[in-house]
Write a structure and sequence with these properties.
Number of strands: 31
Strand content: 35-45%
Shape: globular
Number of helices: 1
Low-confidence stretches: 1-49, 52-95, 144-153
Helix content: under 10%
Length: 402
């Protein structure tokens, strides 16, 4: 099924005609009041983790067709009993099982990449990561405690079994950074408080072997083969923290050449690490780099122009085959736009979406899953997909948020 994506003018005309028709019908029926509701948006961080109960929230497949001359978009239709497909690669939050996680109606759900077979797992959260096998969801909880120096955040990481919704807490004093799973889903790396500083720790999924693997570090990313952990070294002078790579087998740490001040990083195939930086003296440009562990230098792949100095390339996802890199330019008003870099052609392509777009993951080597809309600005949100070349946009789950 294909859908023509309506232009703003078409949508306005359609809305006016529809509302007029509804009002006339109501007047004829003797109904005097028309109530319009809109979902409210809450920016309050969660303070505890509870398994979710069944909820009436559900994906709404399909969209109302409209005549338009704009590019068409294929609309996803889902079958609740459809099997979960296999999607290669383990680049978070994509999983080897083909499962994805998202917020919907005040709950965290796990689903397949078609939006079918939704499983409510816990209450909504802003900091979560699904394991590569799709069986466990890690949620960083931050109950607030009143101390002598004011309110401070502390807590643990809740590991929730997707099938049984059993909850097990692991880790100590996690900081508000995303966690990163090992490719076999047996352990995860996280940022923890370490006195007055931060540290990278790893912990087994059962809570055992919780130990520091890098001092003065934050925001870890475990490589797809589980051999390396990339992280930012904190506590340095100035504002350009070095990007580091830890080789787990030898416990050696190496600074990534040209990685000082890196904004985002993600692993490709094997020992290839991709990262973004801002251009010194030119805040309206961002750079994409690639580094091979152990090499003496990194290679600059390209430069992209960003619409405003307030935005930067702060998110990155690498396709399962490592040939495409998805990046997002995000700003402080929850604005986001997407670019794809083709490593073979060595060029950037802007991904045109109807609303703000926030990357979710790759569904295979060519399809991108992303969240559109901007609840911060009152825009409707949804989980959608688009091909890497910008064609064939599909709605997957209406109302879903990252």
């Amino acid at each position: 099924m294909t859908e023509q994506v309506p232009s703003d003018a078409s949508r306005i005309r359609a809305i006016v005609l529809t509302v007029s028709g509804v009002l006339v019908a109501l007047m004829l029926a003797g109904v005097g009041v028309l109530v319009v509701t809109r979902p409210s948006d809450s920016t309050t961080k969660q303070t505890s983790i509870e398994p979710a109960q069944e909820t009436s929230a559900a994906p709404i497949p399909g969209m109302v067709a409209s005549s338009s001359t704009e590019p068409s978009a294929t609309v996803a239709t889902t079958t609740p009993s459809a099997p979960i497909p296999s999607v290669p690669g383990t680049n978070p939050p994509a999983t080897g099982s083909g499962a994805i996680a998202f917020n919907l109606g005040g709950r965290l759900y796990v689903s397949d990449v078609t939006g079918a077979r939704l499983t409510p797992v816990s209450q909504a959260s802003e900091n979560y990561a699904l394991s590569p096998d799709g069986a466990k969801l890690a949620v960083v909880a931050f109950p607030l405690a009143q101390g002598s120096e004011g309110t401070t955040a502390s807590g643990q990481i809740a590991i929730i079994d997707v099938a049984t919704q059993a909850v097990f807490s692991v880790g100590l004093e996690p900081a508000d950074y995303p966690v990163s799973w090992s490719p076999d889903s047996s352990w995860l790396a996280y940022t923890a408080r370490d006195g007055e500083s931060l540290a990278i720790k790893r912990v087994q999924v059962d809570g055992s072997d919780d130990r520091v693997i890098a001092r003065q570090g934050a925001n870890p990313r475990v490589s797809r083969d589980g051999k390396y952990v990339a992280y930012a070294k904190r506590g340095q002078s100035g504002h350009r923290d070095p990007l580091m790579v830890l080789t787990l087998a030898t416990n050696t740490k190496r600074a990534v050449p040209d990685g000082d001040g890196a904004l985002a990083w993600g692993w490709g195939v094997g020992d290839r690490l991709f990262f973004t930086t801002s251009v010194t003296g030119s805040p309206q440009e961002g750079e994409l780099w690639r580094y091979r562990v152990g090499a003496a230098s990194s290679r600059k792949l390209g430069t992209v122009s960003i619409e405003s100095p307030a935005y930067s390339l702060t998110d990155i996802r690498v396709s399962p085959n490592g040939k495409r890199v998805l990046m997002a330019a995000a700003g402080d008003d929850h604005y986001s736009r997407l670019w794809v870099f083709d490593t073979s052609a060595e060029r950037f392509s802007a991904i045109q979406t109807r609303r703000d777009a926030y990357p979710c993951c790759w569904a295979g080597n060519d399809e991108i899953l992303y969240f559109e809309g901007n609840s911060y600005q009152g825009e409707p949100s949804a989980l959608a997909s688009i091909q890497a070349d910008g064609t064939v946009r599909r709605l997957i789950v209406r109302g879903a948020q990252r």
